[in-house]
Structure formats: structure tokens, C-alpha cells
Amino acid sequence: MILFTKLFLAHLIGDFVLQPSKWVIHKEANKVASKYLYVHVCIHFLITMLLLWDLSYWEIALIITVSHYLIDVLKLYLTPLFKNKSIPFFVDQLLHITVLYGVAYYGDFFNHFVGLFQNLNWALITAVVFVSFPSTIFMEKLLENMSNQIPVDHKSLPNAGKYIGMIERLFVLLFIIIGRWEVIGLLITAKSVFRFNDLKESNNRKLTEYILIGTLLSFGIAILTGLAYLNFSEV
């Protein structure tokens, strides 16, 4: 585990800490002709060797460097084909981490992966999945008749409310699992403060009631899910 941790840390330093924005822009513009592409992969090699602090790992560092170069080149040429630029970014990161995992557990990759999969907390995964998109759909169905009476605010970001709800439910679930119920009260207070000016300016009673019902429903779903997880874990 310590080997993978060091490799992952080297990746974070090389890809994010020691890669200025102008390098990224230059690489996107010049592709394989960019000098910063080669400086970037060399930095990854040096950082990896520095953190491992053992010359016998040079082959691992070389494999990571070469694969990093190939993955980055692939990303540079495929990114313009995507309308959503975040997709190639996350795929790029996933491929890098897969390589790190592969070289860290080379020779025992299959057994380690199977063991990792078998030891997953499936109850927790189910709870996390439920408070995200499924809960959002349930809430949309429950509040459908009310939402039709609320005027659409075109100044809002697309789907902002949906993602805010998912994030707050994930936080509530986390605080319940770690036993910090008081933080949930602070979260409700913080949301109320942020919403106060909007409700004050709109002077819309229906909107106020809709937001209040939605908030209580969202927190209620997260709390019930957290309690169900805790009770299920004790069985």
C-alpha cells in the first residue's frame, strides 16, 4: 500500500503542483511539439524516483513516465473532439491511476484487486448511491405538483439545485456515520443564511414554502438513510 501511496503522491505533485497553467495551454496548442510535454513527463520521473528513494525502482518509474507520455498525447488529440472537456480530463486521470495501481501490485494484481473488491462496504456504497441521483428523482416526483407553481429563475445555473441537494445529503450522511449530529444543524443554518437574501428579495411565499419543504425532505431522506445504514451495520 505504501508503494501505491508514494506513486499516487508523485502523480499529484507532477500533474497538479508542478504543472503551471501556461504549460497546459502550450501543450494543448502545440501537442507533441510542445517542449513542456517532455519537461512534464521528465518531472514525473524525477519526482517518482525521489519519493521512492531507491534506484532499484527505476523500471517502475520508467514505465510510469512512458505511459504518462502516451496517455497525455492521446488526451491532447482527443480532447477537441469532446464538447464537455471534463470527460477527457477524468478519463486521463483514471488511466494514470490505473497504471500506478498496476505497477504497484504487479505480480499480485488479480488477488489484490479481488480482495479489495470483496472487502468493499456494500452497505455504505448503497447508502451513498441512494442519497445521490435516486433521491433526487424521488424528490422531483414528490414535489412535481409544487414545482409547477414556482416560476423558473433563468439566472440560476443549470441543475444547480439538484447538485446542491446531492452534496448536502452526502454531507448529512457522512456526519451521521461519524456521529456528528451537531454539524447537521450548522449545515441547515448555513443553507438558511445563504437562502435568506433570495427569499427576502423575491417576497414569494410559494417559493419560500417550496424551498422549506424541499430542504426538510432532502435532510430527512439523508437522515433516514444514515440511520438505516447504522442499524444495518450493527446486524
Descriptive key words:
235 residues, 12 helices
**Biggest sheet statistics:** none
Mean pLDDT: 88
Instruction: Write down the secondary-structure element order.
Output: HHHHHHHHHHHH
Q: Globular, elongated, flat, extended or rod-shaped: what is the shape?
A: globular
Q: Rg to the nearest angstrom?
A: 24 Å
Quaternary structure classification: single chain
Q: Please report the total strand number as a whole number.
A: 0
| Count of individual helical segments | 12
Uncertain stretches = none
What does this structure look like?
α10 packs antiparallel against α11 (181-202) and α10 packs parallel to α12. It is globular, with a radius of gyration of 24 Å. It starts with a helix and ends with a helix. The protein is mainly alpha-helical and 235 residues long. The mean pLDDT is 88. The relative contact order is 0.08. It contains 12 helices and no strands.
Topology, please?
Blueprint lengths: L1 H16 L3 H10 L4 H18 L5 H21 L7 H19 L4 H10 L3 H9 L2 H10 L1 H4 L12 H18 L3 H22 L2 H30 L1
Helix pairs in contact: 1-3, 1-5, 2-3, 3-4, 4-5, 7-12, 10-11, 10-12
